[in-house]
Structure formats: C-alpha cells, structure tokens
Amino acid sequence: MLNKLPSSISALLDARADGHSLPAGLYTREDVFEADIDVFFHKHWICVGLDCDVPEPGDATVIDIGKTSLILLRDDDGEIRVLHNVCRHRGSRLLDPGKTIVSKLVCPYHTWTYELTGELSYAPHMGKDFDKDCRG
Ligand code: FES
Q: What span, in angstroms and rounded, lies between the C-alpha atoms of 77 and 70?
C-alpha cells in the first residue's frame, strides 16, 4: 500500500531517521492525514466491537473511525447492527459519543426517528408525498 502513496509523502517517509522525531509534515500536512485515513480505514474490514459490547436490545455505543461515526447496537430482534451515526435529513449526529441505551434513534435536530433496524419511522412536516421507505 505504501508504494501507492504520492511521491511527496513517500519523500517524507524516506526522510525518517533513527533516533529522531518524524518529519514535521507527517504530523501536519492535510494530504498525509488523508493518506492515513485511506490506508488505515478504507482498505480492509475493521472490527468495531464485540457481541458483549451490546448484550441487550437497545444497547448502543458510538464508535468513531477515521472521519466516520458509527453506531453499534443490538436491535429488538437481537441482531447486532452497525449504522452510520448521521441523520438522513440534514446530517446531524444521532447519538453522542459513548455507550447508551435506546428504544429508537431520535435525531436531536428535527426529531426524525429511526427504528433500531435503521428504518425511518417518523419524519414530521415532510408532506404527504414524502417517502420514508427510501430514507432509512
Ligand atoms: S437533521 Fe435530523 S431531523 Fe433534521
């Protein structure tokens, strides 16, 4: 994977020296950050939790990986699900970081409400032609 990095980043990696701190650009450059996100978070499956992290229906925990916030939860049928921690309406985060217990996922912004399966169940003021089924 590292051989696919842009040459400017490869040059920083090549400039590393034993007994010295890393070149400053490895800490500060936006393109290095983007490359880190890509290499470490977009190339393979990542284990985000264990069965015992959500033992009961409604147990949920927020996990931030790279630039993505995820909700690991156990739904009412006992299935473990991982959902994006973002509302389909205007992108608000649904849950704050940490563990919690929920019966539904209610967006704090305009109260769009999602079942623990991720299905959108309530979206106020959207008009009669609004199709909730395609916004879970
Ligand atoms: S952003 Fe979630 S309900 Fe509007």
A: 20
Cα–ligand 1 centroid distance for 88 (angstroms): 7
Q: Ligand 1 mean position to 94 CA, how many Å? A: 9
How far is 6 from 118, CA to CA, in rounded Å? 38
Look up residue 47 and give its DSSP letter: -
* pLDDT 10s digits, 67-91: 999 999 999 999 999 999 999 999 9
pLDDT digits 0-9 by tens, 81-123: 999 999 999 999 999 999 999 999 999 999 999 999 999 999 9
**Looking at residues 19-43, what average pLDDT do you find?**
94
Measured distance CA(80)–CA(128) in Å, rounded: 33
Q: What domains does the chain contain, in order, with CATH numbers?
A: 2-41 (no CATH), 51-134 (2.102.10.10)
* Ligand 1 neighbour 94 (Cβ under 6 A): no
